[in-house]
Amino acid sequence: MGVLKDRRRLCRHCGELHSVFDWPDNHRDPAPARSDHPAPFVIRDDIGGINGLFHHGDGKRYDSKSAYRQATRDSGCIEAGGERPQDRSSFRSFEPQVSEQEVFADVCRTLAEHDVSVGSGELV
Q1: By CB neighbour count within 10 A (0-12 exposed, 13-18 middle, 19+ buried), where does 53 fall?
Q2: Cα–Cα nearest to 77, from 91, 51, 58, 97
Q3: Domain for residue 59, yes or no?
Q4: Has residue 12 been placed in a domain?
Q5: How many C-beta atoms lie closer than 10 Å to residue 45's C-beta?
Q6: pTM for the full model?
Q7: Domain membership of residue 57 as a residue range
Q8: Is residue 21 part of a domain?
């Protein structure tokens, strides 16, 4: 293999020659449009696949998301995962019912029952 030579090309923007391996960033063409449509990121209603999606509430197959969701509501079920987060102040905080010392003592007692050495026996 030979050494890479400094290849140069004519720039469409300024008309000068630039190295292909060190092209100026401000002379790059803009990224091409991902679609010709004004709104290319449309979420479709069809599920796709060969047989659609099996619904366990009524035993039918659906190839439409809206029909699947309607069947979920009609069968008395709920669809989880799309809800907004709730206000965190309404959540209860977890209060342990036993202290760390009680847990440590219970673990040490259980280990001693099974003839396992506990070490210094101090809570770290």
Answers
A1: middle
A2: 58
A3: yes
A4: no
A5: 11
A6: 0.39
A7: 44-78
A8: no
Residue pair 86/92 in contact (Cβ under 8 Å)? The answer is no
- Sequential pLDDT tens for the chain (124 residues): 455 667 888 888 788 888 888 877 777 777 777 777 776 677 888 887 778 888 988 999 999 999 999 999 999 988 888 777 777 776 777 777 888 899 999 988 898 888 887 666 555 5
CA distances for 23 relative to 19, 28, 31, angstroms: 6, 8, 16
Count of domains forming the chain: 1
Phi, psi of 18 (to 5 degrees): -125, 155
Contacts from 70-74 at CB under 8 Å and sequence distance 24+?
Answer: none
DSSP letter at 46 equals B
**Residues 72, 94: Cα–Cα separation, whole Å:** 33
- Full DSSP string of 67-111: HHHHHHHHTT----S-PPPPPGGGSPPP--SS-HHHHHHHHHHHH
